[in-house]
Hints:
The chain is α+β, with helices and mostly antiparallel strands. 28% of the residues lie in helices and 23% in strands. It has helices spanning 3-7, 17-28, 40-44, 68-80, 113-117, 123-132, 138-146, 152-155, 252-263, 321-330, 337-349, 359-363, 400-418, 480-497; strands spanning 9-13, 32-37, 83-86, 136-137, 169-174, 176-177, 210-213, 215-220, 229-235, 238-244, 246-249, 274-276, 281-287, 303-309, 312-320, 366-373, 380-384, 390-393, 422-430, 452-455, 458-465. It has a six-stranded mixed sheet with strand order 7-2-1-11-21-20, with helices on one face. A six-stranded antiparallel sheet has the order 5-14-15-16-13-19. The protein has a four-stranded mixed sheet with strand order 3-18-17-12, with helices on one face. The protein is globular and about 80 Å long.
Amino acid sequence: xxxxxxxxNIAVIGSGVTAFAAASYLSKKGFSVDxxxxxxxxxxxxxxxxxxxxxxxxxxSSPKLNRADFIYSKNISDKVFxxxxxxxxxIEIVDSIGLARYWGANLAKYALNExxxxxxxxxxxRNFLENLIPTLNVNEFYQELNNNKYVQNLKxxxxxxxxxxxxxxxxxxxxxxxxxKNKCNLDSLPDERKNEAIFGSNFLMPNSYxxxxxxVVDIMNIFDKNKxxxxxxxxxNTFILKSYxxxxxxxxxxxxxxxxxxxxxxxxxxxxxxxxxxxPMISRLAFVPNLECPKKYISxxxxxxxxxxxxCNIYLNFYPLKGLFNSYTRNSLKSKxxxxxxxxxxxxxxxxxxxxLSISWWIDRLYISSLYFDSDLSSSYITSSKDNLxxxxxxxxxDFQKLILRNTMPMIKSKLKNKKIFLIPFISKIxxxxxxxxxxxxxxxxxxxxxxxxxNKKTDSRIFTIDSSSSEYLPTANPTYYFIARAIKLASDxxxxxx
Length: 499
């Protein structure tokens, strides 16, 4: 390793899991790395009032978004980085590890395998990725815990023809979650609440790189290769200037767009809308008679299905209805007398029974299915104005209603029915655009294929945007694990070029 590499200073801007992955990787390679991002508690002191208002999520939305600590962090984050969302759920969290703090994410490793293989990670980088984020196979966990094969009966007759979009494909996957198996408490398995077994819940910043608490308000000397890059960081009412050889931007699709569009001061691009990709999302109640939910279960995705129907890619997560019911009776409904009665009745219904004559037999086989559709069906746009305000206008493609609700959904129900999975009629919800929380592509007009900053035919190869904002591709399956792998690939290519 060259002497140059040992003295090279790198800034990673961002606080989420992608920034964490890049900073960890680059520091392991011997670079001097600063990870710059604001934190919740210090930022609170800069805000006059923080209202912990109720979230607007209704039944069938993720119960994680109704957590008091999530709402508190979101309100502060929105004060620090204001934006105007029109018919769009645009969530940013200003805190260490970002949304992963409330995550317990479905990594969708099996469904993303082909996409990750295309990144051509070397064995060393693959091992780094595997060791960075814990992975729990839910089916294997249940099998050890309950001696129950769980999804195996469903998988026996699954079929796939993913190469041909003119045919219909369907494949069932074991859910893989970002959970430490050895930290799982059998009396309190992970659900929407904070849990030490969930990656991000009790996140501690690694000591392999330096963490700088502050908000990046400017990057100076862009496109001037004769001068070092200088980052202007605001902390409370003071400003700090720090020089770096290279900068890696990883603030998320919304945050990175805000930063880059503001610092470039390219007034010709102000007011121009850029596409923000996301997944149209529908929640449905499903009855799965051959898949009894175990007595002890993880209240997150228990199994996943990928399918291609009518030339449309769809990814489905299935998690126990009991978990959602428990969440609502435990939190927002607990103060209402009628729901206290319902909860007591539910305890009686929750007694295990092998007879379909028992209501509990049916409850144990009800799941919430979240359907994520191809991002090409989204039609949302993000804009930056002179006053640094970000505006996002949400929407779906004009033919969404006809293509999905009228033509594709009946085909989806038919193919699931062949697997003995029945979507319950009329019990469904079309979520607001952006509710999937998976965004990409906002900076593809500001970056080249190496993810370097590139505007008006001028390129600065010292600045990399390594999160989903620089990616035109958004996997239909939960893309988080893919974008972590992509960030590692970009950091790896950079590291190799500097040896």
